Amino acid sequence: MEARIVRRVDKLGRIVMPKELRSSLDIKTNDELEFFLDDEQFIIRKRKSACEFCARTEDVLDFEGHKICRKCIEKMIALL
């Protein structure tokens, strides 16, 4: 089923994303979103977390506000 919800852009260019959409996409406060143009469509999607060192998106953990993948963690441990 296609969601059809209309929102107005305010004078600062902001749009409020409806709670139903945030919930269905598991979007929480401070999550990063990506914006794309595809032909005539404007696409917003939740950004996958990427490792700050190698940019991998698989197996990424959050350590005190930093995104680090397991492979980079293993490399750091090997340095000790």
Task: Give an account of the 3D structure.
The protein is α+β, with helices and mostly antiparallel strands. The protein is built from two helices and four strands. It has two domains: 1-47, Pemi-like Protein 1, Chain: D (Ribbon); 49-80, no CATH class. The strands form two sheets. Strands 1-2 form a two-stranded antiparallel sheet. A two-stranded antiparallel sheet has the order 3-4. It is elongated. 4% of the residues are buried. Residues 4-49 form the SpoVT-AbrB domain.
Spatial shape: elongated
Number of helices: 2
What distance lies between the first and last C-alpha atoms, to the nearest angstrom?
A: 53 Å
Structural class: alpha+beta
| Strand arrangement in the largest pleated sheet | 1-2
Helices, strands, pairings?
Layout: H1 19-24, E1 33-38, E2 41-46, E3 60-63, E4 66-69, H2 70-79
Antiparallel strand pairs: 1-2, 3-4
Descriptive keywords:
80 residues; alpha+beta; Pemi-like Protein 1, Chain: D; 2 domains; two-stranded antiparallel sheet; 2 helices; 20% helix; 25% strand; elongated
Summarize the structure.
Keywords: DNA-binding. The protein has 80 residues and is an alpha+beta fold. The chain is 20% helix and 25% strand.
